[in-house]
């Protein structure tokens, strides 16, 4: 095989398969073309590959025996550690082994290990509630380092497990990150404290939001059908969540916010249990608890008060409407 071709193995564990469904929606190019251009050979995927059962196990055996090089291991879904750390809640069919053990063995053979989606990264939805299945991510359990592989894990390229979060993940984040790994263009300096590439975590969902003018003047919607800012009353966490969802739209046209729903920060560890309803903004003395990232509380209060005092009538009227009802007025030039 051409030495420039990188072998990728994709496994699924405790999850819904939504990240695979999202990947299928990749556009310009589609994910198969993106893999081909990046020189990625898909060894096996539980949805896309023809091999099942014994044939699939032979693929794993060849990797573990060193007969096939594994350049990139992708895991979708959380690792099921229960009951009592045995992993027997999720067994690899036909192997007699817990899936967690097979994932760990393959991870130790891989040049790069990638958690695709927030379940594989941090535990995600599967770990919510009392987490009876003892679900965790590859390198994290929530926001705590560890997970299946442990806090000191390094792949054969001396990188930690790389996390591409989201519930589901944005398809372009997957194809972009895998292309960069294939080209050898990701180093430890390119990752944040949660193992996320800065290409993802360096942007907030808030950036590029179509409702930013409402945000600036704190002209807020009071229910979902209205077009004002959803931070103050409807639980939107776009100012706190990593991702370029509003700059790089899903399927070329949309995002959660542009679709009328608040950002629930699905790229962040622990998003699945915010401690309050997703569509509610918790407040203390009328001030939202979840303030924008890196913004001191005193500054926010001062700026919010000033902004509300200066809110144009147009924004006040539109914020609580389900469509634009008041249009921008053009000032007439003197003498006209």
Radius of gyration: 23 Å
Largest sheet strand order: 2-1-3-7-11
Proportion of helical residues: 25-40%
In the CATH classification, which architecture of the largest domain applies?
Answer: 3-Layer(aba) Sandwich
Low-confidence residue ranges: none
End-to-end span in angstroms? 75 Å
CATH topology of the largest domain: Rossmann fold
Tell me the domain tally. 2
What does the model show?
The chain is of the alpha/beta class. It folds into 2 domains: 196 residues, NADH:ubiquinone oxidoreductase-like, 20kDa subunit (Rossmann fold, 3-Layer(aba) Sandwich); 127 residues, Cytochrome-c3 Hydrogenase, Chain A, domain 2 (Irregular). The chain is 25% helix and 12% strand. The chain contains 11 helices and 13 strands. A 5-stranded parallel sheet has the order 2-1-3-7-11, with helices on both faces. Strands 4-8 form a two-stranded antiparallel ribbon. A hairpin with a 2-residue loop joins β9 and β10. α1 packs across α6 and α2 runs parallel beside α6. The longest helix has 13 residues. It starts with 5 loop residues before the first strand and ends in a 17-residue tail after the last helix. The mean pLDDT is 93.
């Amino acid at each position: 095989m051409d030495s420039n071709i990188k072998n990728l193995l994709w496994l699924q564990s405790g999850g819904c398969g939504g990240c695979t469904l999202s990947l299928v929606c990749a556009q310009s190019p589609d994910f198969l073309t993106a893999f081909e251009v990046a020189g990625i050979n898909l060894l096996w995927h539980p949805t896309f590959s023809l091999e099942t059962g014994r044939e699939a196990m032979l693929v794993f055996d060849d990797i573990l025996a060193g007969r096939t090089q594994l350049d990139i291991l992708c895991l979708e879904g959380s690792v099921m550690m229960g009951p009592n750390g045995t992993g027997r809640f999720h067994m690899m069919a036909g192997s007699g082994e817990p899936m967690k053990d097979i994932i760990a063995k393959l991870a130790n053979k891989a040049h790069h290990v990638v958690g695709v989606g927030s379940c594989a990264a941090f535990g995600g939805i599967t770990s919510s509630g009392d987490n009876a299945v003892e679900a965790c991510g590859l390198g994290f359990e929530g926001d705590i380092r560890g997970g299946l592989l442990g806090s000191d894990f390094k792949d054969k390229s001396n990188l930690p497990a790389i996390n591409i979060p989201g519930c589901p993940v944005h398809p372009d984040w997957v194809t972009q990150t895998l292309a960069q790994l294939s080209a050898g263009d990701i180093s430890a300096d390119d990752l944040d404290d949660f193992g996320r590439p800065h290409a993802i975590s360096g942007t907030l969902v808030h950036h590029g939001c179509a409702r930013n003018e409402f945000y600036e003047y704190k002209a807020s919607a009071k229910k979902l059908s209205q077009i004002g800012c959803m931070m103050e009353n409807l639980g939107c966490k776009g100012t706190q969540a990593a991702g370029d969802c509003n700059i790089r739209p899903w399927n070329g046209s949309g995002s959660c916010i542009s679709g009328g729903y608040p950002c629930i920060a699905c790229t962040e560890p622990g998003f699945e249990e915010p401690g309050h309803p997703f569509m509610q903004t918790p407040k203390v003395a009328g001030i939202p608890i979840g303030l924008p990232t890196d913004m001191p509380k005193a500054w926010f209060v001062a700026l919010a008060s000033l902004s509300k005092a200066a809110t144009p009538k147009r924004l006040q009227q539109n914020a609580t409407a389900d469509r634009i009802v008041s249009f921008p007025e053009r000032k007439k030039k003197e003498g006209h």
